[in-house]
Hints:
By secondary structure, the chain is mainly β. It has strands spanning about 5, 10-15, 20-25, 35-40, 45-50, 60, 70-75, 80-85, 90-100, 110, 115-120. It is globular. The mean pLDDT is about 95.
Amino acid sequence: xxxxxxxxxxxxxxxxxxxxxxxxxxxxxxxxxxxxxxxxxxxxxxxxxxxxxxxxxxxxxxxxxxxxxxxxxxxxxxxxxxxxxxxxxxxxxxxxxxxxxxxxxxxxxxxxxxxxxxxxxx
Length: 122
């Protein structure tokens, strides 16, 4: 029903920045809470950030707070993740997700993108 496509990943040196985008189609974007998750090889998928329908509620994982910023543009059906001061431990596949009444747990989200690779070198 809802399709999500991430873009903007790549290779960056520690201390650098990237901005990820997630474009949504097939549903009413403004009806969904949006989230970003990441998964490194051999590790479980972990919460990164979430933003409510009208951007009034935003929450970050402690590991990224102060460095990452989530935002959304409902007119463009797009959610963003601005990543600054990147660290090697940020290396992972980053996924965007959409859900109704979702928060910080992956199972609360209903739709997922294909992921985009972020690699931070030291």
